[in-house]
Every structure is written in structure tokens, then in C-alpha cells.
Amino acid sequence: MNTFLVILLVAAMIATVVALVRGVVNFMRNADAEVRGTGPSEASIRSNKLMQARIFFQAIAILIVVLILFAAGHNG
Question: pLDDT tens digits, residue range 11-68?
């Protein structure tokens, strides 16, 4: 069970980093256009969705850590 949770934790951490990097790259690529724009563009909406995904994956990772600590407390 602990091995499964550790694998899930690593997967959630990787997903968090991927969402973060994609969001930052998307932001950097479109930041210049955003300064000149008049309202939210498609790129800014996509960047917002990527940052929301990052927060979701971080929450999953935190929950998995709590489960691992809870399981470790009951085993020891």
C-alpha cells in the first residue's frame, strides 16, 4: 500500500511540475501581447487553466502525503 501511495505521490509531483512549467512558458510567450491587449486573450485563459491544474495536482500531492503519514503512523 505504501509503495502504491509513493508512486501516486511521485506522479502527482511530476504532474504539478509539468503544469507549472507549461503555465510559465505560456505566460512568458504571451506576456508581451497581454500588455498591449484589451481584455483576456485565449492565451491568458489557457495560462489560467494551467495554473488551476497546478493547484489541483498540488492538492492531490498533499493529500497523498497525508495518507502516507497516516499509514506510517498506524504501522509504527
Answer: 999 999 998 898 888 877 777 666 676 667 777 788 888 889 989 999 999 999 999 8
Q: What residue has cell string 495536482?
A: 57
> Residue 54 CB: number of other CB atoms within 10 A?
20
Confidence at residue 64, expressed as pLDDT on a 0 to 100 scale = 92
Which residue type is seen at 24?
A: V
CA torsion angle 68 16 58 12 (round to 10): -30
Residue 44's CB is within 10 A of a number of other CB atoms, namely: 17
25 contacts 17 by C-beta, under 8 angstroms: no
H/E stretch holding 31 reads: helix 2-36
- CA dihedral (37, 39, 42, 48) positive or negative: positive
